[in-house]
Amino acid sequence: MHDHSKVLEEVKKGMPEEKKLCRLAELFKLFGDGTRMKILYSLFESELCVCAISELLQMTQSAISHQLKILRDGNLIANRREGKTVYYFLADDHVRTIIGQGYEHITEGEEK
Amino acid sequence: MHDHSKVLEEVKKGMPEEKKLCRLAELFKLFGDGTRMKILYSLFESELCVCAISELLQMTQSAISHQLKILRDGNLIANRREGKTVYYFLADDHVRTIIGQGYEHITEGEEK
DNA sequence: CATTCATATGAACGTCTACTCATATATTAT
DNA sequence: ATAATATATGAGTAGACGTTCATATGAATG
Question: Where does the pLDDT of residue B112 fall: very low under 50, low under 70, confident under 90, or very high at 90 and above?
């Protein structure tokens, strides 16, 4: 194996600590599922209650609730209760920004 | 179950087609792994060969190669061969932007 | 051509994950 | 209190995923 010490030293300096990189990966993992992505996108315009989301995505209430919990634990969404109904909404504008960047990437060089 | 037809109609209009949302999730999935995140970050400054990356991350060459393939299939990185050595580099500036947005999110409200 | 070095790849294996199903909790209405 | 509605949650399961191990490919060197 040839030598890389010089390059690696430089690269290491520019990198955040391991822990931070893993947290970063954990964050992106939240966006890395079709169901969660749809949920997040559905909250772009307005808050929605659980059963509205499950109706929109045509999935069971249970499946949606499980994913909502994951998103809430990740601080991407928050909720408020109004009687029996619980409304979920985006917790942070970063969510929109991050998804927007990804969207730009995949739609780049497309027309249809 | 109460009625959501009015709200859902609005929300549906604002949402991209299902296929696109899944592709978006697939994109973010690429960032959603510690090893891949480290690889991408290590390529922020300069291109690197496989064994440099595996030395940097202290992981086997095989593990790194597998992940490089995933990133390459996802068009986040590209490579060039120079003799026996293969150098990998970021394929797109979007990668930096997207990761940057995520980084901002997780470092928000931190000092240490 | 055989060897060595750098990288790629297929199979196997253990772990993680997203869903389902059953059930629990919480709130309102009767 | 009982029933009904909306949501949450634990256990179980099938499939996806990341690593390892063994091996293959590809290029330079003797």
Answer: very low
